[in-house]
Write a structure and sequence with these properties.
Blueprint (H helix, E strand, L loop, with lengths): L4 H4 L26 E2 L38 E16 L4 E19 L2 E23 L6 E24 L2 E22 L2 E23 L4 E8 L2 E13 L5 E5 L4 E3 L2 E10 L3 E10 L12 E2 L2 E10 L13 E9 L3 E3 L2 E2 L2 E11 L6 E11 L8 E16 L8
Antiparallel strand pairs: 1-4, 2-3, 2-21, 3-4, 4-5, 5-6, 6-7, 7-8, 7-9, 8-12, 9-10, 9-11, 12-13, 13-15, 14-17, 15-16, 16-19, 17-18, 19-20, 20-21
Length: about 400
Amino acid sequence: MNKHILLIILLATGGLAAQTNALSNSPYSLFGAGIPNTFSTGKTNALGGAGIALKSDNSLNSLNAASLGAMPLNHFYFDIGYTSQLFNLNEGAGTSKQTNSTFSNLALAFPVTTKSAVSVVLAPYSNVGYDITGIEHSIEGSTEFYSSDVSGNGSLNSLDLNYGYAVFNNFRLGITGSYFFGKTEQTEYNTIYDYSLDIQRENRYSGYRLGMGLQYEVTEKIAIGSTVKLPSQLKTTQNSIITQDYADAITEDTSVKDFELPLEVGIGTEFKFGKSYAVYADYTRKLWSDTDQELGYGTLIDQNIFKTGLTFTPKPGSIYYWENVEYRAGLNYDTGYLNLSGADVKNYSMSVGVGLPISRSGSKLNLMYSYGQNGELANGLIRENIHSLSINFSLDGIWFVKSKYN
């Protein structure tokens, strides 16, 4: 089969079906374990995803465990996120629109000592969601063809336990232990003349991964950070159910290769200008080519992600509400991890957002809108225009503080 035939004919007779258990309507989620999740906790969503050097001194930053070393004593962070996306897909001959929504993260953090804190974060690692119709296959030894429809859904999730410790006031270290779990399902409907053959495949994933991070405040206005996530293999099992006309269904367990997570290395910077402005810039590299995984219709390539963001607060600490609102903007450029028919599937996005104070303790309602593009109208690829809205309740509670009044 042509390497990109699945993508070329995607919108010929159908489109993508909305999923309820995964945030994806992308045909590119057909490959591997799906499209990686790009949403995080707090304000980093509106910063293009940047924040490796951002410390968790007034809200939870889940991008770097070392940030927890700056968490104040007696505080408790809770963050819950919800995301909605509109996908406009274009393959030249046709277009399609699909929407979906889902919870994007659930996280909490609390201090252990005056220099250390722990957080637990539950979030999708990747999402699968596609519905491809009208795929044509040639019949071996014949000039005839048969058709297939393929649909898939599911997600791979991560549960992260993070610990951060302040070695010095300006130097912090962190460690992350992640547990991965989830499943993806694919259903293939084949019609050969008047004969039908349906194949349902369910892949289940489980495994662990270790990560580390550091943050260093060079001055009061400049900070740097770094993260490393070690490569890991996730145990993968596949169960198949084959159904055909005039015969009983066949159930079988298929031996498949374990899914591999790549080595990831990230660096980030923070620059503060006065009390109102801060600029963040991150770079992350994921070494997918070292995993030596076979996709069937493409290859995995090393991924480079560039992120930058800006925050502006008119007058922090003012008695006036709107002078304490934090305004944000960000850019993200990703060289992609997929190569299909010699073309890299690149993407970029632009984001804006606000952090609205909802309590004097520091709790915020974080709102973000982003527009992004994934893929291009060339080499048989599909261009996805993606509009995203996210809302995060980032709550900061104060524990065990003795009342001043009886």
